[in-house]
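We emphasize that the prediction below concerns an isolated chain of 237 residues; any contacts that depend on oligomerization or on bound cofactors are therefore not represented. The input was used exactly as deposited, without trimming of termini.
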Amino acid sequence: MERQTILIVEDDAAVRSALRECLEAEGWAVREAQDAAGMLREIETGGIDLVTLDLGLGADDGFALARVLRGRRNIPVVFITGYGQPLDRVRGLEAGADDYIVKPFAAREVVIRIRRVLEGYRTRAVPVDRLHIDHSSIDLRRGVIEHRDGRREDLTGTETKLLELFLSRPAQVLSRDDINRALHGRDWSPYDRTIDTHIARLRRKIEPGDASPRMIRSVRGVGYVFTGQINREARRG
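Result of the prediction step, given as a token string:
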């Protein structure tokens, strides 16, 4: 398998060095940038499989930068930042991040989380079905939603894994523990709103726009259930 490349976007040289050391020890190739301009140059060069992004990049807004990146390339983004408030985490996920790690970080945790995000994106290389719903089609292989009105949206790796989980257990209520274990390999914390944020983002992309969700429904005090009607089209070749 070709070695994957991770771009570290961080203005603190010591943090960049620590991240480089732990990532290279796992066999990944590493490139670095210390600001928005450097990140965009590296992205345009190509060959980047994942970006770690700090929110505090001097005058650059990390949230806005994540949205710019997601608009240009379907590359996974992991925030590694000192901004540890719950609202910061939610804003990061809403900006398109696949995971959010708060400094000071444990090197092993960073490696495990990055590996899981990369594995989520790797599933897109495997030919799977195209799903048709009344207003759009979803290509899980490419992680792309194509709406009938011509709009096109990308699914993040986490959103793809979340949708696949719901599709594998239709009409079955999944607790937040069930979902968090499937996505992150750990139980859910009542103080962690990450799961709800991911589901809210996925709903905005796949629901037809009605006031009440009809594909992914909330089950009060328990979790969520997928009740959407879909048609599956097998991909060939």
